[in-house]
Amino acid sequence: METLEALMKGALDSFRADPLLRRMTDPEDRALLRRKLPAEDWKALDEASLGAMEAFVRDWQARGLLVEGDPRTMALLLTSHFFLYLHADQIGEDRIDAVIALFARCAAGGLTDVRRAT
Known about the structure:
mainly alpha
């Protein structure tokens, strides 16, 4: 659990520190890019990103490190935490780090508790 939790927090810290990566989740920038790209290119970009996370999930499942379940759903859960910072204004700057840490701890705990079936 600690490894996945640290991975999630570390990835988000890196993401938040990189302005170019942050723009990839900005709703206005995403809408602009979606309008500019052909639909098949937009879908290919989303699939490439999600596909990499899905491969990670499948690998960890095969090694018994993650619970069984739909790898795509788990990949979506793991990538959804990148969007939390978009709600920092609603959450509050004083609480956003605690919310992110709790999300990572809960998600990692649930995904790594191999004693229970999903």
